Amino acid sequence: MKLTTNTQVSVDGVVQANGGRNPDFDPGFERGGWARPLFDGEAMTFVDEFYQRADAFLFGRRTYDLFAGYWGVMEPGSSPIADVLNTRPKYVASNTLTDAGWADTTVLSGDVAAAVRELKARPGGELQVHGSGRLVRWLLANGLVDEINLLVCPVVVGAGTRLFPENGPDLALEPVESRTYPKGITLQVFRPAGRPQYAA
C-alpha cells in the first residue's frame, strides 16, 4: 500500500484545531476552527473523494480519539466520510492505548516503524493518514511517507501547533500536483525526494 498523508495547514504552518474549538483536546486554544469556513464545495468534494480511495487508515493517538468520538459514532449513511472510516481497517500508533473501542482498529505499539513497513508491504491502494501532525513528522523522519497532500488554507492563525518544528530534519519534495479552490485553499501534492540541495 502507498502511504499518503492529508493535512490541512494554515499559511503559517498551523495544524492545531483546524476543524473547531475542542476544550478537551486543545484546552485554552481560542483560535480553533480556522479551516472550516474556507472549504467550498469543490474542496469538500476533493476531501470526500480522497477518503474513498483509502484501503486503510493510520492515526496518531490524539487524532484517533477525536475521529472515533466524532465519525465513529455516526449512523451508516449519514456521511460518506463516516461510512468509509467505519467500514475499513484502522491502525493507531500508540504506546499507551490498550483498548481501542472503534470497530476494526488495531493498535500499533513497540516497533511502530516495522509495523508500518509491514502494512505498506501489503497489497492494496492507499494507507491514509489524516491530521495526526506529530505522527506525520515521525513518518517523514523515518522515510515512510510516499505522498504528501497539503491543503493550504489562506489564513495566518498566529498561534498553535505547527506541522513542522522550528528545528527538524530537512527534506526535498518533488511536486506532483497543484490546484486552487474557489475560496483560496490550495492543494499541494508532493513526493519526498531525499535531502535538499543547498546553494554554495
Task: Please explain how this structure is put together.
- The chain is of the alpha/beta class.
- It has a single domain, classed as Dihydrofolate Reductase, subunit A (3-Layer(aba) Sandwich), CATH 3.40.430.10.
- The protein is 24% helix and 26% strand.
- Strands 4-3-2-5-1-6-8-7 form an eight-stranded mixed β-sheet.
- Strand 7 and strand 8 form a beta hairpin.
- The longest helix has 12 residues.
- The radius of gyration is 17 Å and the shape is globular.
- It starts with a strand and ends in an 8-residue tail after the last strand.
- The mean pLDDT is 96.
Main traits of this protein?
single chain; eight-stranded mixed sheet; 200 residues; alpha/beta; Dihydrofolate Reductase, subunit A
